[in-house]
Amino acid sequence: MDGEELTEQETALYDRQIRVWGAGAQRRLSKSHVLVSGIKGTVAEFCKNIVLAGVGSVTLLDDRFVTSEAFNANFLILPDENAYVGKTVAEVCCDSLKEFNPMVHVSVEKGDLSTLGVEFFNKFDVVIIGYSSRATKKAVNETCRKLTKRVAFYTVDCRGSCGEIFVDLQNYKYAKKNPDETVECELTFSSFEEAVSVPWKPIPRRTAKLYFATRVIELFEETEGRKPGECSVSDLPSVLKLKKELCEGNSVSENHIPDSLLERLVSSNSEFPPACAIIGGILGQEVIKAISGKGEPLKNFFYFDAEDGKGVIEDISKA
Amino acid sequence: MDTQQQQSAIKGAKVLMVGAGGIGCELLKTLALSGFEDIHIIDMDTIEVSNLNRQFLFRRSHVGQSKAKVARDAVLRFRPHISIRSYHANVKNPEFDVDFFKQFDVILNGLDNLDARRHVNRLCLAADVPLVESGTTGFLGQVTVHVKGKTECYECQTKPAPKTYPVCTITSTPTKFVHCIVWAKELLFAKLFGDKNQDNDLNVRSNNSASSSKETEDVFERAEDEDIEQYGRKIYDHVFGSNIEAALSNEETWKNRRRPRPIYSKDVLPESLIQQNGGSQNCSVADDDSTVSAMPSLGLKNPQELWGLTQNSLVFIEALKLFFAKRKKEIGHLTFDKDDQLAVEFVTAAANIRAESFGIPLHSLFEAKGIAGNIVHAVATTNAIIAGLIVIEAIKVLKKDADKYRMTYCLEHPSRKMLLMPVEPFEPNPSCYVCSKTPLVLEINTQKSKLRDVVDKIVKAKLGMNLPLIMHGASLLYEVGDDLDDIMVANYNANLEKSLSELPSPVINGSSLTVEDLQQELSCKINVKHREEFDEEKEPEGMVLSGWTQAPATNGESASTSNNENVSDVTESSSGPEIASKKRSFSETQPENHKKEAENIESEDEDLMEIENPMIVSKKKKRVE
Ligand SMILES: [Zn+2]
Question: Which key words tag this protein in UniProt (chain B) (predicted)?
């Protein structure tokens, strides 16, 4: 295999999961470096999952100062003012995460995502963008695609009880286990820009409504200059107007996107913790798959809505 | 979600969590974040190192402490103002009776074994408190909702019984590594280190003088002054050498089978081991039982490494020597424990030597430990997802949103695009003996089978009763409890040893027994049918219980049943289901359920939801009929 063996300590700690994904995958995990930006509830869940899984390092990026709003669904921030006053979200979360697994190197970087350059992203194998604007997601995705090495790129958002994960693994090879043999498979992913600009008309009618609804909200926030998630019920009329325009522009009927869904999305200003656990769990699982090269990865959107309880994969790629 | 009403339902709720392990840690965290303010949590376990990869509320410094208590303290750090009460206790303790359960609005299970799940199910039915049940294994998981009268109870569908192997496969004709493990663990290990009075199918007679009429001595008897290494070699030569040789002489057995090869210690090991490695004196520094190990003195470090025949043989002798040298006091009372390093080493080595003999591929200690210890695959992510789903269902239960109850499967591979697949819960099964009180049928030889057999194999093992009471008409045949006087106890003990037809109130063909558990407040009727003969291999218990939930999918194992019934029984556990009958069958040691999940439900019509699984639809129909 790759030479180095797991230490006795690693074998004991990771015993139960090595039985799921094997020692080879565990070794690859321990050599991987993950960048995480935007740490709210869902991303906090994700961070816990990969720190427990035993990745090599986790680098946190979130320069917001801790306010009472920040620990809403985020169990990494203890509600002790003395502990968090004057610290950024990334710094406080870093302290908590270190405790979960002393074998993982957790650290903090500062800076604005959209201005960080190629050299910065080159240090990572996995990049997770939580709660960012459409423009930032596009910019970081483009930067990652310029690197000579392949970086696994993910975005994740949770609004109320709904969530979206986007995945870009570029050209990705993985081992697929069939009953008698393991075969190598290859997938080609679209960039974020491509995946969110696909014309709506040809997309199958049964596709998760959350795909379209999220695009509407995303565009609304961008044109209004809002931060991600900064909407309220009072925005609903403008959001519905934008929906109408988008539907017309895409030659689809207006009831393509239920108003009730948009209303839920704009009016939920905090994350629903069970949804965070679920979406953060799926994202953790996908990142582990991508690093280990084992198992079919999710391509290329995942949606969860606690209302109907479904967790659905949608492949929406450029033609 | 409609927040006002929901938040007040959550705030006012009093919930009981059973289990603070893999699912439990995630669940307690998510409950606290979601706004629950009155949480009680029961768990009898203490923290182990192998928990730390997923039970994230625990740290290395907590190893050995109560899970329930440490989990409570950890969650109070980020939600200091809520109330969490922890109980470091077994949920089956009498203090957790129906009245205890009645104080809660909903019970949330994050358990690791069938027995406790069934117990909690019965208490929930008796107390009329809704239950949200869960389970995970690897990337698979499921959450189900059980509300009395509205949805099925946890026991409405039979759970897959642990796989058993025919005795002769284990004793004479193994074909898989697991057969060698079962042999090493339940025969050889038990014979050498366990209770000497336990039934054991291992041939212990010396074969040298097999033809002579004289009864030969038990090879396993060790003389006081016998050198341990010599004794070890004698056992080695007996079980891997002469026993195989004796088996080979039965030509009939090997007509269509690969013939095993007898292995003797002199062919594998040097004359004396003392000079080779300095013996066992200088190998282990700490004398804590669980850390005594044969590996260091043999230069073996990596548990994932595959040992050859010689290495396995060295480990076999060394481990056996260490048991006698360092753990003499325990010999005679030991049972195999996956956390007992020396026991795992011995069983791995013995299973590998036997595998070598039978031409079966060898396995590493790590793999052998997994098989022998019934270790369930577990990762943090699945537990987190399942915990989230439990809370979502719990909130629906609190809001009495009965139309929205779902059971949800967490899949490894998407089925109809779904990784999380909600389906409508089943209605209660009218033939369920637990929630519908339908009589059961017991076929048994009433002249030969003793009451003890019925108590052990049926009442305890099959019906999962904890404190049973058995009546025949007005006559009390058996009961357990602290408040019985000596005369009653003597009477009941005498009854246990009687065959059914000899009891003070004879139980014969057509008799009807009432079996009750006072703690579970469960009572069921068993109609007795006399039957003369039973098939030793197919009906190893010598009796057959039937009459509940066998209607759907009785014929064949049908791939479809693997989709929805299995996950919850093999969850997050450290100890597998117990063997019903030690003497005549052996337990399956590896859960094999996670293969077929839901691949068979691909369909084009995406309109149907909640009822897309054809198997579920057909079951439902059958139920309704
Ligand atoms: Zn039932």
Answer: ATP-binding, Metal-binding, Nucleotide-binding, Nucleus, Transferase, Ubl conjugation pathway, Zinc
Amino acid letter at B214? K
Q: Are residues B149 and B44 in the same domain?
A: yes
Provide the pLDDT confidence category of residue B562 given band limits of 50, 70 and 90: very low
pLDDT band at B207 (very low <50, low <70, confident <90, very high): low
Q: Spell B94-129 as b/e; 16+ CB within 10 A means b.
A: eebbbebbeebbbbbbbbbbbbbbbbbbbbbbbbeb
Question: Within a domain: residue B582?
Answer: yes
Residues placed in the known binding site of B? 19-24, 43, 51-54, 67, 112-117, 153, 156, 432, 435
B128 falls within a domain? yes
Subunit contact A306:B1, Cβ cutoff 8 A: yes
Taken in order B123, B31, B405, B592, the sign of the CA dihedral is negative
Interface contact flag, B418 A275, Cβ < 8 Å:
no
Domains in chain B, number? 3
Residues of B annotated as catalytic (active site), given as ranges: 168
Number of independent structural domains in chain A: 2
Residue A113 inside a domain? The answer is: yes
Residues 6+ apart with CB under 8 A from B356: B261, B263, B309, B312, B362
- Mean pLDDT in residue range B327-333: 90
* Residue in A45, A78, A160 nearest the CB of B384: A45
Measured between CB atoms, does A207 come within 8 Å of chain B?
Answer: no
Least Cα separation, residue A84 to chain B (angstroms) = 12
| Statement to judge: residues A69 and A118 lie in one domain | yes
Is B203 exposed, middle or buried, given 0-12, 13-18 or 19+ CB atoms closer than 10 A? Answer: middle
What CATH number is given to the structural domain containing B286? Answer: 1.10.10.520
Best mutation site among B385, B410, B570, B603 for testing chain A: the one with the most A CBs within 10 Å?
Answer: B385
Same domain membership, residue A181 and residue A215: no
Same domain, A232 and A145: no
Cβ <8 Å between A310 and B77: no
| B409 and B319 within one domain | no
Q: What is the DSSP string of A295-315?
A: SPPP-SEEEEETTTTEEEEE-
Return the H-helix or E-strand segment holding B470: strand B468-472
Among B54, B301, B392, the residue with its CB nearest the CB of A8 is B301
Give the number of beta-carbon pairs within 8 Å between A and B. 166
Q: Identify whether A2 is part of a domain.
A: no
Which runs of consecutive H residues, i.e. helices, occur in B424-485? 451-453
Domain match, A179 and A98 both: yes
Taking alpha carbons only, the member of A61, A65, A55 closest to residue A107 is: A61
Task: Please tell me whether residues A45 and A82 are part of one structural domain.
Answer: yes
Q: Are residues A112 and A253 in the same domain?
A: no
Q: What is the CA radius of gyration of chain A?
A: 20
Per the CB < 8 Å rule, is B49 touching A18? no
CA distance B316 to B228: 12
Say yes or no: A220 and A204 in one domain.
yes
- Show the 3-state SS of A128-181: EEECCCHHHHHHHHHHHHHCCCCCEEEEEEEECCEEEEEEECCEEEEEEECCCC
Domain carrying residue A229: 197-267
In this structure, is residue A319 part of a structural domain? no
Question: Rounded to the nearest whole angstrom, what is the distance from the C-alpha of residue B153 to the centroid of ligand 1?
Answer: 4
Strand partners, B236: none
Residues spanned by the domain of B479: 440-547
Distance, CA B155 to ligand 1 centroid (Å)?
Answer: 5
> pLDDT tier at B218 (50, 70, 90 boundaries)?
confident
Q: What is the pTM of this model?
A: 0.84
Whether residue B390 is predicted with pLDDT greater than 90 in this model: the reply is yes
Q: Which residues of B are annotated as a binding site for Zn(2+)?
A: 153, 156, 432, 435
Q: How far apart are CA B513 and CA B575, in angstroms?
A: 32
Cβ–Cβ below 8 Å for A16 and B138 = no
Round to whole Å and give the CA distance between B54 and A14: 9
Could you tell me the two tokens for A56? 């090599």
Does any CB of chain A come closer than 8 Å to the CB of residue B483?
A: no
